[in-house]
Design a protein that fits this description.
The chain is mainly α. It has helices at about 5-30, 35-40, 45-60, 65-75, 75-95, 100-115, 115-130, 135-150, 155-165, 165-185, 200-205, 210-220, 225-255, 260-285, 290-310, 315-330, 335-340, 350-375, 390-415, 425-429; strands spanning about 385, 385-390.
């Protein structure tokens, strides 16, 4: 009998592909430390800046279902390699853009390309790791992604100050192109291609005999898919909106912090997010339950944003702790990916990952754009070196929606039905 792949080989193969998620997360939150430069270079205010940043999210969200169907049809390796090449081109276009529409085109291409990363990671994980470790592995994916977000905090802020945002982006484009070559040369879609037994469910090896549209139809007809769709989107959007765009300018303009110092606070939130994913995913796997840990995390996340709104002038140490808790609790969304996989047919793993992940970025795009519009509606006319400055009342009006979103996530998780970490397909067979 064939033995399963060695654990180090599984992690290396999967981790190399997960590096594309690192790149995607880096590009996702990079604009947060370039706000002033982007406003000046393209002559834009908060609404258009929010739109420029959100184009990444809109493109990413729009590509989630196609990415899932492609991952099912042609495999993660091919899809990820092509995506990494396209992402490198998009980053270079953004870096060299001399107009807002070219910059927007570049951001859109980046978002559409790296959209395959998380879905491909989940698809690959189902083949290289046992099913009862799925939440743990996808939690590690969130950790890897958030490390990209950390790199886009203080390190990128210093790079922007030293060599400019355009050169920093060009360097990241070169690194992404190298990653494309590494994925193509090393990654394999299934351990069978290296002579080992696969962990994939037998129904997943041939996609359950289902074509792309049939698998998508099965996914969207499952009630729990939609509860998990809204839960993931509503819990992720506040963190990605705050840490990914509006948190740094808020801390600079309202609390008078230096940009690098402000980036440390938002990085703390992303670090909490990064750590919360694998730990809460592992907790769920160990408990053999999905709903209780996910619901508890969603409640803690919502309470964190309520405290943030009600007590805006916290001491620095307390603010660090609050941001860490908010980020950590938001990491519970990783449970939703294992959860959604278990409530659907194993042959539709890519499709279900695409559907659920579409909300994570789609809702963030809506919030980023919407908050820019709210800020401009409440702008009092202040400007510094060509960039608009917003007061505490304007930010409070915008950030109220972070708490509303988080409370919506609680309600969505409450509507789910427990799987006890088992595929419902097997229990129905």
């Amino acid at each position: 009998m064939q033995r399963f792949p060695p654990v180090p080989l599984a992690w290396l193969t999967w981790g190399l592909l997960a590096s594309l998620y690192f790149v995607g997360f880096f590009q996702r939150v990079a604009p947060a430390v370039m706000v002033d430069e982007l406003m000046r270079d393209f002559g834009i205010a908060a609404t258009l800046l929010g739109n420029l940043s959100a184009i990444y999210f809109y493109a990413y969200a729009a590509m989630q279902i196609p990415s899932g169907l492609l991952a099912d049809a042609v495999g993660p390796r091919r899809v990820a390699t092509i995506a990494a090449v396209a992402a490198a081109l998009g980053i270079a276009l953004f870096a060299l853009a001399d107009s807002l529409w070219l910059a927007s085109l570049g951001r859109g291409l980046i978002g559409a390309s790296v959209a395959v990363a998380f879905v491909a990671c989940m698809k690959l994980a189902g083949h290289w790791f046992p099913a009862n470790r799925f939440a743990t592995v996808t939690g590690v994916a969130l950790l890897i992604g958030n490390l990209g977000g950390v790199l886009a905090g203080v390190p990128l802020s210093e790079a922007v100050a030293g060599i400019g945002w355009r050169m920093a982006m060009l360097i990241s484009a070169g690194v992404t192109l190298l990653l494309a070559g590494a994925v193509w040369l090393w990654v394999r879609d299934d351990p069978g291609e290296r002579g080992y037994a696969s962990h994939a469910h037998p129904e997943a090896l041939n996609n359950g005999g289902m074509g792309p549209w049939r698998s998508l139809k099965r996914v969207v007809s499952e009630r729990d898919t939609w509860a998990l769709f809204f839960a993931g989107g509503l819990i992720a959007a506040p963190v990605l909106t705050f840490a990914g765009l509006w948190g740094v300018p808020y801390l600079v303009q309202v609390h008078g912090l230096e940009r690098s110092h402000a980036a440390v606070f938002t990085t703390t939130m992303l670090l909490g997010f990064a750590v919360g994913g694998p730990l809460l995913g592992a907790l769920s796997d160990r408990m053999g339950r999905r709903k209780p840990p996910y619901l508890g995390a969603a409640l803690a996340h919502a309470l964190g944003w309520i405290v943030f709104l009600l007590v805006p002038d916290l001491p620095a140490a307390a603010r660090y702790l609050l941001f860490a808790v908010i980020g950590f609790a938001a990491g519970g969304l990783i449970i939703g990916f294992a959860f959604s996989r278990e409530v659907n047919h194993p042959g539709a793993a890519g499709a279900v990952g695409g559907v659920v992940n579409m909300a994570v970025l789609g809702f963030a795009a809506i919030q980023q754009s919407g908050m820019g519009w709210i800020l401009d509606r409440n702008w009092k006319g202040a400007m510094i070196e060509g960039a608009r400055v917003y007061d505490a009342a304007a930010y409070h009006a915008a950030f109220t929606w972070l708490a509303v979103s988080a409370l919506g996530a609680v309600a969505s998780v409450a509507l789910t039905r427990e799987t006890h970490c088992r595929l419902r397909f097997d229990s129905k067979a």
